[in-house]
Design goal:
The structure holds 2 protein chains of 2 kinds. By secondary structure, chain A is mainly beta. In chain A, 5% of the residues lie in helices and 45% in strands. Chain A has 1 helix and 8 strands. Chain A has one helix spanning 63-67; strands spanning 5-8, 14-17, 29-31, 34-37, 51-56, 75-81, 87-100, 103-109. The longest helix of chain A is centred in the middle third of the chain and has 5 residues, at 63-67. By secondary structure, chain B is mainly beta. Helix content of chain B is 12%, strand content 40%. In chain B, a hairpin with a 5-residue loop joins strand 28 (412-419) and strand 29 (425-433). In chain B, helix 1 (119-129) runs antiparallel to helix 3. Chain B is flat and about 85 Å long. The termini of chain B are far apart. Classes of the chains: A mainly beta, B mainly beta. Chain A binds chain B through residues 57, 59-60, 63-64, 66-69, 72-74, 94-102, and chain B through 210-218, 220, 253-254, 286, 288, 311-316, 342-343.
């Protein structure tokens, strides 16, 4: 299982991870709701595309967490545990859009 | 022609081709409220010009060439076709290439006899003209709200509009309202106050599907710049007002993101500020746009009605106004859209208010008394501004009926500020007073 997770710098910070056990480096408030992270595309010109993160909201358990849109325009980081068991920042940006239904799509812009 | 199609085509204004005496082909305009226009040549000797294609209330001022012109009569009459029109009879002919600018009060309300400035009356007038079937009382709710809110509109209906509904949207946008043929009452103050509306429908888990909500930081603005007081003769806005969110947290989070709005039918600063403030308070907050499909076949859900939503996937709860509805003609199911900002409306502050293009000017004349000068405040049409605040250095006086105030000043450069008390302010930092 991938050990990537999303961290959003709300107050307090929130993390969204896969599975049921949060990574040891995750923030205190963490939800096991991460379904997938989009690809990170970097071009020769230096352009870095947006990255979308899908969260599971099939039971509506994250609806109230996103209802106030406190996540919008907050810094966000996608982390992953590397082979040496260190937390590595893969992507930094800000949350620029949220789409909420049975899944929640968080768009992060570098 | 169907009821609606009249609003979706160009306003049925007459053209100068209705009579052979006109020299150039042009659309004959309708004038509402107080407007400044360039008239249309009417008579062969260029002494008569047409102001509007209907009778008007009065002419306020005329600029001919570069000067104020008074040798005229305003005449409400009929043309050869029997159509009621407004003419300006001038003692001198309108010379080729010469400016002719007329400030006038336009169309009457035929029901009340007053100058037609209530936006509901203007909408009704446009609807009647366009063949849209609507009674005078059908728009009463908005008429009363506009009266209570002191909303007025001033503008010209001409060939700049391809569709009558676009002119109606400009009218409503200029006073902080919306118009929609599906809206109960045709037009309403924006944002719609759902507290005073009956609940049209209740939506929950059992009668909705495909519920999703979107929000984007791109939609957020923290500064609104509103242009208003449009001069139809000069074809430009004379004034502008800038409002900013008075909340460091919001500015710090989203930055200074400006939205410009053009209030073509708004003639006063108070209303421009009110419209800009409403827009800023709405769009400076994160905004959910929620869509869902109602399970109920053939359910009529017009835009503007109040509905309640209670659903585990809905970030919004309580009562909201429907912002759009789309009926699938095949299935009879309706897709409903709701839009709502999150949190409480922030405070706003006016950061700039003044003449957009420095159209307010001042002239100085010297008295025979040494050291005494008279400053005249003039608007964009060089018309004296009665009761303007005129400041010379640190002394402020109120202009008389001729826009004049007298001061004592030594020769040299002085600071002059003209405040027309209607939102227009001009500052001159090197106003020269000679011996």
């Amino acid at each position: 299982m991938s050990t990537a997770w999303l961290e959003i710098a709300t107050e307090p910070e929130q993390s969204f991870f896969k599975g049921t056990t949060p990574p040891s480096d995750a923030t205190d408030i963490a939800y096991g709701a991460l379904l997938s992270t989009g690809d990170l595309r970097r071009s020769l010109s230096g352009e870095i595309s947006n990255v979308s993160v899908e969260l599971d909201n099939s039971t509506g358990n994250l609806t109230s967490i996103f209802a106030d849109l406190d996540q919008l325009q907050r810094p966000a980081t996608i982390w992953r545990i590397d082979s040496d068991d260190n937390a590595v920042s893969l992507f930094d940006g800000v949350v620029t859009a949220v789409r909420l239904s049975e899944t929640i799509t968080v768009t992060i812009t570098p | 022609m169907s009821r609606l199609s009249g609003l979706l085509t160009a306003p049925p204004l007459r053209q100068t081709t209705v009579r052979t005496a006109y020299r150039d082909v042009a659309v004959l305009p309708y004038c509402y409220g107080t407007v400044t226009i360039t008239p249309i040549p009417y008579s062969d000797d260029n002494r008569q010009v047409q102001l509007a294609d209907h009778p008007i209330d009065s002419v306020i001022s005329v600029i001919k060439g570069k000067d104020k012109y008074t040798a005229y009569n305003h005449v409400n009459t009929t043309d050869e076709t029997g159509h009621a029109i407004a003419l300006l009879d001038m003692f001198d002919p309108w010379e080729s290439g010469e400016d002719l600018i007329v400030k006038l009060r336009g169309r009457w309300n035929t029901v009340t006899g007053d100058l037609m400035t209530n936006p509901a009356d203007v909408l009704y007038d446009m609807a009647q003209m366009s063949g849209y079937d609507m009674t005078y009382n059908a728009i009463d709710n908005f008429r009363v709200d506009a009266m209570i809110g002191h909303m007025t509109v001033n503008g010209v209906l001409d060939d700049s509009y391809n569709r009558t509904i676009d002119a109606m949207r400009d009218v409503c946008g200029s006073c902080g309202a919306i118009v929609n043929t599906g809206l109960p009452g045709f037009a309403a103050v924006w944002p719609i106050d759902t507290d005073i509306l009956p609940t049209w429908a209740e939506f929950g888990t059992l009668n909705t599907t495909d519920l999703s909500s979107d929000a984007s930081a791109d939609d957020i603005v923290t500064v609104v710049r509103a242009e208003f007081d449009y001069d139809h003769a000069a074809q430009k806005y004379l004034q502008s007002i800038v409002l900013e969110v008075d909340d460091p947290d919001i500015i710090g989070r989203y930055g200074r993101k400006e939205k410009q709005i053009s209030l073509m039918w708004c003639g006063n600063a108070r209303q421009a500020e009110s419209v800009a403030k409403k827009q800023l308070q709405y769009y400076s907050r994160p905004l959910w746009t929620m869509d869902f499909t109602s399970h109920i076949v053939d359910q009529d859900i017009p835009p503007g009605v109040a509905v309640t939503v209670s659903h585990v996937l809905s970030p919004l709860s309580g009562t909201h106004a429907v912002s759009a509805s789309t009926v699938n003609i095949e299935t009879g199911l309706t897709k409903v859209s709701i839009e709502s900002p999150v949190g409480t409306a922030p405070e706003t502050t006016v950061v700039s208010l003044g003449a957009a293009m420095a159209d307010i000017t001042a002239t100085v004349t010297h008295s025979t008394i040494p050291g005494e000068v008279t400053i005249t405040a003039l608007d964009a049409n060089k018309t004296p501004i009665e009761s303007a605040y005129i400041t010379l250095d640190t002394v402020t006086k109120i202009a008389d009926i001729n826009g004049k105030a007298t001061f004592t000043a030594a020769p040299g450069l002085h600071y002059v500020k003209i405040d027309d008390r209607q939102g227009g302010v001009t500052e001159i930092f090197d106003f020269e007073v000679t011996q």
